[in-house]
Design goal:
- The complex is a heterodimer of chains A (114) and B (113).
- Chain A has 114 residues and is mainly beta.
- Chain A has strands at 4-5, 10-14, 19-25, 32-38, 45-51, 56-59, 62-67, 72-77, 86-94, 101-104, 108-113.
- In chain A, strands 2, 4, 5, 9, 10 and 11 form a 6-stranded mixed β-sheet that branches. A 5-stranded antiparallel β-sheet of chain A has the order 1-3-8-7-6, with no helix packed on it.
- In chain B, strands 2, 4, 5, 6, 9, 10 and 11 form a 7-stranded mixed β-sheet that branches. A 4-stranded antiparallel β-sheet of chain B has the order 1-3-8-7, with no helix packed on it.
- Chain B has strands spanning 4-7, 10-13, 18-25, 31-37, 44-50, 53-57, 64-70, 73-79, 87-94, 103-104, 108-112.
- The radius of gyration of chain B is 13 Å and the shape is globular.
- The chains are: A mainly beta (114), B mainly beta (113).
Chain lengths: 114, 113
């Protein structure tokens, strides 16, 4: 049973426009959320995170929004650039059990067209 | 070297071979992780080590044997693997003790023949 879901396997946007990547989760105990970007043949790279006590966090072109009541978060990239083309993973921290454990979604492949 | 490094980057092995994957982190972190990434699946957490102690084993078959001699090094010993074990194996580290962000190595692409 997937606790973190990224329902769109792929997304294609035009350069300069906004990219919106979505993520849903089922476990209300998750207390910290992260977005990672992954290029082929490389490991995931940390992008941006948000604590469950906030609803928005911004870092340059990247903004993450959290809607706890809907158990939904999204990553906005504005403006999108061709170098943003990668697979984006949403992850959530599971505070239960004592380990520093992250649960990942399957990823969304973003393609930014010049 | 900076960040998290993994060797080898690619590995092809037969089902009767024994091999080891190595991970080293240069970030001063206290927690280290092994993940498996198979095609079209989420990253699957395999093992977690905090201050060299194993704190999580996610029902991983015994043909995968982790070793963490110190907070900077993590190994994954492999023996009698199956073809379905072919995947990308990723190592990560984090500060631990409330530092939730994990930093990943480039991964080892493993093929089991």
């Amino acid at each position: 049973d997937q606790q973190v879901k990224q329902n769109s396997p792929s997304l294609s946007v035009q350069e300069g426009r906004i990219s919106i990547l979505n993520c849903d989760y089922t476990n209300s105990m998750f207390d910290y959320f992260l977005w990672y970007k992954k290029y082929p043949a490389e490991g995931p790279t940390f992008l941006i995170s948000i604590s469950s006590i906030k609803d928005k966090n911004e870092d340059g072109r990247f903004t993450v929004f959290l809607n706890k009541s809907a158990k939904h978060l999204s990553l906005h990239i504005v403006p999108s650039q061709p170098g943003d083309s990668a697979v984006y993973f949403c992850a959530a921290r599971d505070p239960q059990g004592g380990s520093e454990k992250l649960v990942f979604g399957k990823g969304t492949k973003l393609t930014v067209n010049p | 070297e900076t960040g998290v490094t993994q060797t080898p980057r690619h590995l092809v092995m037969g089902m009767t071979n024994k091999k080891s994957l190595k991970c080293e982190q240069h970030l001063g972190h206290n927690a280290m992780y092994w993940y498996k990434q198979s095609a079209k699946k989420p990253l699957e957490l395999m093992f977690v080590y905090n201050f060299k102690e194993q704190t999580e084993n996610n029902s991983v078959p015994s043909r995968f044997s982790p070793e963490c001699p110190n907070s900077s090094h993590l190994f994954l010993h492999l023996h009698t693997l199956q073809p379905e074990d072919s995947a990308l194996y990723l190592c990560a580290s984090s500060q631990g003790s409330g530092g939730y962000t994990q930093y990943f190595g480039p991964g080892t692409r493993l093929t089991v023949l």
